[in-house]
Amino acid sequence: MLRAVEALHGALGDSECPAADYLSLKAExxxxxxxxxxxxxxxxxxxxSASSSIQSTVDGTxxxxxxxxxxxxxxxSTTEEYRKVMKVEMFSWLAMASRYKSKHWLHxxxxxxxxxxxxxxxxxxxxxxxxxxxxxxxxKLRPDWAIVLAYEQKLRxxxxxxxMEGHTLADALNSVIKDADLKEAYFTTxxxxxxxxxxxxxxxxxxxxxxGSFSGKSSPSFAKGKGKGKGKxxxxNQADSRLKGLNLAWRTxxxxxxxxxxxxxxxxxxxxxxxxxxxxxxxxxxLTNVALWTEILETLDEGSWFIIQGKISTAPSRPETSANEGxxxxxxxxxxxxxxxxxxxxxxxxxxxxxxHPGSIWQWPEILELIPKCNACCFAIHQCRFxxxxxxxxxxxxxxxxxxxxxHMSLPKFDRSGFYKGPLPRKCGHRHSHTLIGKTGAxxxxxxxxxxPPQMCQFLANLILHAAASFGGGKEKSNHRGTKRGSTAPxxxxxxxxxxxxxxxxxPHEVHLVQDSDEEETTxxxxxxxTVETTGDGGSTVQADTTTGISHVSGDSSGFAITGQxxDTTTGISxxxxxxxxxxxRACLNAGAPIQVEWDGATRGFIDGFGLCxxxxxxxxxxxxxxxxxxxxxxxxxxxxLAECVDECIADVRKESFRLVTGKIxxxxxxxxxxxxLREKWANLLRDPAEAKVADSGQPFYLRALxxxxxxxxxxxxxxxxxxxxxxxxxxxxxxxxxxxRSPQVFPEKDKHRKLDDTEFSxxxxxxxxAQISAVxxxxxxxxxxxxxxxxxxxxxxxxxxxxxxxxxxxxxAISKPDGSVRPLHDATHSVMVNHEIRxxxxxxxxxxxxxxxxVRESTDTGEARFCVSADIKAAHKLxxxxxxxxxxxxxxxxxxxxVVWVNRTGxxxxxxxxxxxxxxxxxxxxxxxxxxxxxxxxxxxYVDDLHGSFVGTNKFRFLWIWILAYEMVGTPFGYHKFKGGxxxxxxxxxxxxxxxxxxxxxxxxxxxxxWIMKAASNRYVVPSRDFVEFLGxxxxxxxxxxxxxxxxSPLFAWASVTSRSTVGKLPETVILTLQYILRELQSETYMxxxxxxxxxxxxxxxxxxxxxxxxxxLAGWELGSRRWFSFRLTPDEAPFLFKESGQSQWSSTxxxxxxxxxxxxxxxxxxxxxxxxxxxxxxxxxxxxxANESLTIKRATTKWPLMAINMQLxxxxxxxxxxxxxxxxxxxxxxxxxxxxxxxxxxxxxxxRVDITWKDLDVSILQALVQTREEFEKxxxxxxxxxxxxxxxxxxxxxxxx
Length: 1299
Known about the structure:
This protein is α+β, with helices and mostly antiparallel strands.
């Protein structure tokens, strides 16, 4: 793309050439036909992109984040800077025009519209505008530069809007600069208003100096009070004279909201000066900056400052937290010692939640020491008592005088189990409708609670103002703790705290909560009240809604055990229990069985991608328990030389770790000389050091050293490194002439083989169109591979003589990248049929959602601070040598019309054996690293070329670098620019949050699904079948983690299975209804799922049955604990989909039994909205050996009618209740009670316990909608099936949209 631009405009300098990231962004917008007007500070040149930096931020949970600021520049401050930025923008769009010639809105685009646009903005119509003087001359107005830039941005936005309406970009740019209405609204009027206000108020914050006049300095959160201190204290019922004339403003001069923090009354005795240090407001407020800390401390030393602190990281057991503790205590002490005050705010410590006690600053001894040292008080509040829309329990610590009935003066109290006992009452006294869970539209529900409510701001401001009223000279200074505002004299802060604390008891049999008389209200917060019950053995159970953050479950007082079993899901990628025939677990020399992971009802052994015998499948303390002393010593010696090298090359492992995961490190910190010395030391540990130093040609690994090392550990695959005739050192075979090997200790046996596409055999195939139009780029890529020894060119005739009938020249495809290069794709399936002849004996196993959730859970369970890293291994498949006799199967051409043929000499993506051999080699290297670490704590996973590691504890950063160095010592090439991680990361398309113990998909991928459905809706659901299949595949990927989606994929798969890929048409109503439901759920739900174990209700909770007879169906069930029961009839008028025209219903027994389960869930109160996941076992009765519903709860989906529709309705209800359902078939003779109910024999049941429920009481809206569209759906399916005649055209599987 840029070459085409340079051909017209000459070579581009770094300051005017767009950065690769920015080109990529514009390419995505162009492909989606959704161009945007980027802010000027986000238009990045190559020069600007090279000056990235690390920036620390604080998220909503109080955790510190270190992020890159690479894609953000500064706003242009001069006309010349603006011209340079717009040059970058111009060349970006010209590059898009040269690349995407089919985009009509880019037709005819040249540099001229951009040049005219810039001249308009900077010329005499905008920035250089002139006004006539009284003498008749012209005077330059020089409007405010900020107004000019805002107007410029609005013009470009309007231009892009017009592009979306059908205009070309050139026409849009030319038209917006002629739009008089735009100029009037966004330039002329703001300039006039600015001029009229310039004399009315200052632009900047103004500060009183010591002489009583304004200094004019900007004082951009400390509040400093200045008072004369000559007045006398008044009674509490009268306003202090020193506060006379003091007004509290709501907004700053630049129109930002500022609740009560700005004193606008210039004539008062007190002036408030605000200094704000907030990383969320400005990157200049980076608390890792020493100069900033100098400014803060010097400010505090001035004296008489009020400091308000919040958002401090509270990660449990984190060694770095000591820095936060010291910071919070240190600056508070400094303020107090300088005749100042502090307010420290943080959420209340609510004790044990989900069997864990989350970290809180109120647990830090350094914070609690402030109470006696500074004569401070500590109290808790419900923010709803100050006008908030939710309770939001909050705690404050201050050395200001506090006397307010809404403040509960006591440290947090807990019972012996760690559950919260006060001082906050369990009822706040209000009824709340707002929830902090999920989204409302596109806005998170937590957004309104991010800021203090106005009454709380006023409360804090009053504390400050009354204390400030006592500042100044003379005798008043000794009494600066504030004046009384209550009807009785307040206790000193520390005494008040001690007095209140004495009223809270820790008795397990009674709960005494400190509560003022005005709290005695009868109303209750919806979902915010905590009910505290005690048990006879001294335990307690606290039940509360998660709105308040209090959700504790303990004890066994309700008749069932909460076992904490976690539902897991099978991934469709790797389904293996951890043991397979031929696998000897004892030979792994570990203790016990591998880690067990669960997801969506399935449990299996942990899969790390390094093979069944990999030591990192076990918990660290179980690894290597039965290893020999020689093995343990070799691992220890190897670990020591690695640690020594890390210590020599990396001075600060913590700092470099953050630089690594934020993209600041572009190449290995371990230089060639350091690696050479390290490998020499490694070789000296082995039996043949000379051979260990040899690196075989054609690949990067030190295979001989690795073979010797793994030989000591008797690794089952070590012989494949060097000893085999077709080894990794000499070149492996691709599996055409002989089957791929069987390795029972590494892989389970492959018992199913996918049928490949039927294709007409042709040994010499032509390239796909995408490759033909990129022939030049393909050849350039092949030349690069040749330089690395992975490919070589030849002639067709020469190769025919060399390989004979083994010669295969495959079709090539090419995927264009934003930087103008291409990614080659080798099709070894169609025409050449190489993949048809390759036979696997081993099944490749890779980590999936179960493992990703398992690693997060294992890391979280340590209670230590976590740090993760995701890495990319460069050209993984290309790192495996192929034996020369098989090169003939791996040929291709850059240009189909050329007789030059390129020969692959290494593993080739598109050849089915390439991932197998790479998985085998990667497993050897990964196990080597696992052996080295022995029982030290770390976890690792690999999925093809994506590597992920998790580290905890005080040594996590050092271990991370030792881990990376171990891979590099063997020869693993990393793409350092692709390292990412920290407290969260992405791994194979999944988003991982270690800090929140959540996994899911990234917002970008989730939004892609939402946008696809919305775009289909805007096109009235007329979509190409190929696009629909792509969407469905990605939806299926998401359903691996967001499991409520699975049942709703059934009608989508049913439709996709019968339509031709070349079809373009309107989707059936059934599919449309399903898509609309999925859209609503995706918009209202988060894309993340908790990895914590859900409550599991073991044993049958209730039993159901259905009787299908002529003319009616009886649905019935009873609850085992309470013996509540229900029974009602269904008729053909109510549920015609369960009956034939003759009135017979026996054929629908499976569907009726599932419907009975759905009715029981509603009748017995299980279908209530919740945030905490639960797992439920239910028994149903089968009149025959039909176990379809039991299987259905495992597969989660079916295309059989009407079972599909009922299952979708049931899934919708379960997802809202966070309920996972396991149906268990039970023979009729063992379920006689339910059988009696369906036969309407009620003599054994108490009539008073009957639940009155009918068909009309059930929410079956989804079911009814699907029933109404079923006939049309089946008709369209049949038509599509007949149109495609069962044949699918040869797929262009390489042409996919970005995700």
